[in-house]
Task: structure prediction
Amino acid sequence: MKHSSRMFLALLTIGLTVFAVMPSFSQTQSNTNVVEATVAILKGPSGISAAWMVADPPQEGGLRIKFLTAGGADIVTAKLISGEVDAGVLPVNVAAKLYNSKIPIVAVSVVGNGMVRFLTSDKSIRTLADIKGKTIYVAGQKATPDYLFRFLSDSIGLKAEVDYTPIYNLAYPEIAAGLATGKVTSAILPEPFATQACLLNKDLISPIDLDALWKEKNGLAGYPMSLFVMSRTFIEKHPDAARAIAQAYKKSIEHTTSDPASTAALVEKLDLGMAASIAKAAIPNSRYVYIPAREAKSNVDALLSVFLSFDPDSIGGKLPDPGFFADF
Result:
């Protein structure tokens, strides 16, 4: 997804057609001391880890949360820009670009660590060097899977479109389906789509460990995929409520990782974009975490530095300053 300055202005015009309001299940309270918050939940992988927060939202201090489900990060971006939502999950580079574009948001926590996999049915591929001359479908041009793989392949002297051919014309579900049927031989694909493909095609292998290669190159264990961001205005106006929402999300992630089966059933019940059978299998591989953003700064900056090297505009032209990272 191209996040140009023009797109950011265009996003302001996006309507509510792919946004749905979800009940918060909280009890009706009087208007005295009520703090209302709107939290965007992405359907699909990011929404899985928020399921328990949606089902049992925090109510401390009169907090009432309205959840809005979105079909894509561009919708969450638009609602954050317009002020229609107070918090939501975004890709790391998108969050950084918003901040560098003077949108008053801060990163509260990393809620999804690296979950990108190289999958292939080509048994001749055993190491990264073996991709030379191959065609590889890549999920999300100019997104984390793309730039992560370009960075790693560049590090051994293999250039995209010179030494191997990246194909970007299929969306995540379509790449998964292609791998499952054998129409796609090799691909870079994040979870839970990678698990979905492997469940349907037992011939798929993952001979290249991208996480291990990332650690080998920069010494960091893991790279962030998703950030939970919040309106700075909301935090300053309602600091206790902001912390309550953050803690609720943390507990939801902990519940998700400790009980995949129940979480998967809840995800399907809440219509968060994934069947229970797929969600149950994908959760153990999806690396849901809750790491306060201030503690993950080095990892965030490392990934953003990769974006900066390939496409400075994708993060707003520079690494975000320390004000990007919430202090709780």
About this structure: DSSP finds 14 helices and eleven strands in the chain. The chain has a mean pLDDT of 91. The first strand starts at residue 19 and ends at 22. The chain has two domains: 5-114+223-324, 116-218.
